[in-house]
Amino acid sequence: MSERVNDQDLSPESKAFKYGLDVIDKTEPLIADYIRGELENQRTQLKLIASENYASPAVLLAMGNWFSDKYAEGTPGHRFYAGCEFVDKVEVLASEHAKELFDAEYAYVQPHSGIDANLVAFWALLAYRVEAPFLQDKEVRHVNDLNDGDWATLRKAFGNQRMIGMSLDAGGHLTHGFRPNISGKLFDQKSYGVDPDTECLDYANIKLLAEEFRPMIIVAGYSAYPRKVNFAKMREIADSIDALLMVDMAHFSGLVAGKVFTGDFDPIPHAHIVTSTTHKSLRGPRGGIVLSNEKGLNEHIDKGCPMVLGGPLANIMAAKAVAFAEAKTASFQAYAQQVVDNALALAEGIEKRGGRLVTGGTENHLVLVDVRSFGLTGRQAESALEESGVIVNRNSIPFDPNGAWYTSGIRLGTPALTSLGMDCDDMGEVADIICSTLSSTEPSQTKTGEISKAKFTLDQSFIAQSNGRCNKLLSMNQLYPNVNIEGSI
Asked: Has 277 been annotated as catalytic?
């Protein structure tokens, strides 16, 4: 172990994390070692996972405290447990910050994750559109007041509702109504895709699908679509068939908060309900949030617990409040704009070096590369890049011939590298590392002599050289430069 470090030489952040690890060491040293190892990995790899970022030390520290010990089912001032005075204050502050940040009338900050936020939204919409009118018709105030026959009728009505959302290979998400996910078991779902030539959304075709299928909910939003979405047009389509527009902005909420996506491309003024994670481009803790400007809907969102959520995680809500406060600053707006500028520079760098970009470019934080232009599958590209020090994820592309496991694409995102301080010039070097790796990777053969979709060959000397280039970039753009956890206290 390194020599003892003098406390006076440490930053406040270093002291906080160092002492914390020292405490963990005394109970389960392996966990302390794993935490140190994760930090080392993140400091020595180029993180281009579009859904990942680096939370600030303040956000990280806000998650580890006594709020984690509290049960607090209910809402501020209406808990099912006593002793929640400061939990109430935390939740109110987080909600107020979120409302101001996104210019929303209502913010629900309890969801534990993106899928939880979407479940809250789905059931709030069902309560708003199906349950509330049914109760009014039966002249009762609560579902517990229904007789068994009426309750059976209402339950059946819940399961008969329809939804449309973006198809998975076009860039949609499992939680938008697909069968392996609970959302697909809850709704009768159909997907809208993209134009086969432009690979971009075709709003006329979405409108035709909506008119034919007549869904109750239209879901907009994406996890792997490198373009903006016109939410004003999506609301027009929803209004034309009396549907409800739900937007999942988990991936691009930081660009909304940072005022990069405004007007027709800001979902808040146009959607009935908006969900998001609080990590990704928003740079907060892992968690979810639900926003709305629809007055009649808010009371149903507020029942997320016990509707689909367990007790709220007060420590995570505290971290959300810190992250929202950070996102209200001018520096965060500059960061959000740089995320998009960096994505554009990365896309241009890859295209210049022979890579084919899905949709021909990007307008947001992510770039989708068709790696068939390098003779590879997405799985091979992902693994080869990891060996070279670049962390990405394989991803389906529109009309993908390799399916969802092997895929034909990789998804790249710039939020994390931008958090490190990298700029457009750095993206040129990143693009060169990526394309050099992919160009140097060769598919292997299977035992039967066929071309493998998973195995590959990549020269070890090239791997060492590529990792050296990554480390040089990272040495000039350090992760948590004020955090030193070497040695012991």
From this structure: yes
Question: 70 an active-site residue?
Answer: no
Q: Which of the residues 91, 116, 199, 248 is marked catalytic?
A: 248
- Name the residue among 40, 93, 69, 137 with its Cα closest to residue 315: 69
pLDDT band at 233 (very low <50, low <70, confident <90, very high): very high
339-357 average pLDDT score: 98
The single residue of 286, 353, 356, 455 carrying the catalytic annotation is 286
Query: Active-site residue among 44, 52, 71, 442?
Result: 71
Q: What is the pLDDT of residue 5?
A: 54
Is domain 330-476 classified as CATH 3.40.630.30? Answer: no
How many Å apart are CA 222 and CA 229, to the nearest integer? 9
Nearest of 273, 131, 272, 248 to residue 181 by alpha carbon: 248
Contact 234, 248 (CB under 8 A): no
Active-site entry in 25, 73, 264, 429? 73
Cα distance between residue 40 and residue 43, in whole Å = 5
What's CA 208's distance to the chain center, in Å?
Answer: 29
Alpha-carbon distance values, 243 to 203, 211, 216, 240, 379 (Å) = 16, 10, 5, 8, 39
Overall average pLDDT of the 462-466 stretch: 97
Residues 261, 228: contact at Cβ < 8 Å? yes
The reply to whether 71 belongs to the active site is: yes
Find the catalytic residue in 18, 47, 79, 280.
280
- 73 a catalytic residue: yes
Is 311 in contact with 242 (CB distance < 8 Å)? no
What integer is the mean pLDDT of 116-129? 96
For the segment 169-190, what is each residue's pLDDT rounded down to a tens digit?
A: 899 998 888 888 888 889 999 9
450 an active-site residue? no
Q: Which residue out of 75, 175, 275, 277 is catalytically annotated? A: 277
Domains of the chain, residue spans: 66-327, 330-476
Q: What is the pTM of this model?
A: 0.94
Mean pLDDT of the chain: 95
Q: Which fold has domain 66-327?
A: Aspartate Aminotransferase; domain 2 (3.40.640)
φ/ψ of residue 290, rounded to 5: -125, 130
